[in-house]
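I had to read the description of the data format several times before I understood it. In essence, backbone conformation is discretised, so a fold becomes a row of integers matching the chain in length. I therefore recommend that a typical entry be quoted early in the introduction. For illustration, here is how one protein appears when written out as sequence plus structure tokens.

***
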Amino acid sequence: MTALKKIIALLNARLKPGDSLVFVHGNFNILHPGHVRLLQFAKSNGTFLLVGVTPDGTAGTSIEAEMRLASIQAIGIVDLAFILEDSVLDVIKALKPDVLVKGKEHESRPNAELAVLDSYGGRLLFNSGEMRFTDLGAIDRQYAAAPPEGHFNLDPAFLKRHGYSTSDVLALLHRLKGLRVAVVGDLIIDEYVDCEPLGMSQEDPTLVVSPISSHMFVGGSGIVAAHCAGLGADVSYISVAHEGPLWDFAGNKLTSYGVKPDLLSDRSRPTTLKKRYRANNKTLLRVSDLRQFAIEQQLQDAIYEKVKALLPNLDALLFSDFNYGCLPTELVMRIVELCKKHNVKLAADSQASSQYSDVSRFRGMDIITPTEREARLAVKDSGSGLVELAEKLRLAAEAQIVLVTLGAEGVLIHAPRYDQLRTDRLSAMNPRPQDVAGAGDSLFSSVTLGLCAGADIWLSSYLASAAAACQVSKVGNTPLSIGEIAEVLS
């Protein structure tokens, strides 16, 4: 019996009267959230989801077919999956699915399946799944039992796929020492006010709390600089702030972390302060004292001159942008042009947690690290799948590597390899984070240092994910250290 006849027999045995068959086919090299969203959409358009996995030797495949099939079979919404030993057109002719679902990126391309579907009344739908920015992992964690102390999901399969071991990651970690980097961007001070909940106000439906303690941390681009220093780099930090207590706090803290801070006085804005009111390990309210207009030309020129003074003794420059005005596009372009003359590695992270951002304005970076939301904002695309989205952003930003952070779902890495683009996904390593506020900053810092130390993006991303796992295991932004990451890895 041929493989196709076996599938027909299985379907005849399992399909009930009135069931509608939905068919999806593809390579499914590395199963990432974009695939899951596509399959969820497909399942919503029928009652029985059938998935065909392309065989070994198909263009674009890099993982054995049996392994790719096992990944698809592990998804609960898939009713039946098989390896395609016949052509897709022959499979559709034989099975006559009610619906064929393909990714949104195929809508503008030739689709040979359409003629076969039309011959019997089947439908072809294009969709990449519902876009969402809510962290489903955070919702799940509310109901999950706490993992054992020190438990991390280290995803050894990722290392194996790329020919590495844990010892390679540890070796890279120790090669970061002495790298010469500069960080430029928006300084933020984070304050955590721990409160005792007293109850509900009798006058109006307002929660009443009493402050117990307050802790302040250097955040924004400041913590990016501190992370780099904590990992052994020689770090120069350039930003603007308003002279006063927060200026003093930032300067003293950064110096204690081993950073060389160079703060420029800007009397037109306060030093950005984000105050979080928390009770029972939950944030009740965040109050941000900030301004978002661009710094004046005189300050832009001063920042440019300070960067110029660091050259040529610089290995990398990191733009840490929170869209509060420290990095106007004109200044960014001037600094990029200057650094490229000296072969300085360039990285950018432009955050949009509560404001608008466009990471694509940082043109010509070696790596950019947006969230999915930031990537979609940059290319104005709410519908494409994750891989298509990453490629659109890579082209728009003229970037070498795009690393899309996906919260509890990990990271999607979109990068060139052997003159071809390669995409992979790395799972989040900490299943029960205490405070996710600093995850992106720690990942951005460490992946850039890894690349700067000569590692490829796969090894650098693994190191960065381990660093992020360490960072989110504690409340508040405190610098990474080589020791804590090494402890997790070993």
The radius of gyration is 25 Å. Confidence is low (pLDDT under 50) at residues 133-149. The first strand starts at residue 21 and ends at 26.
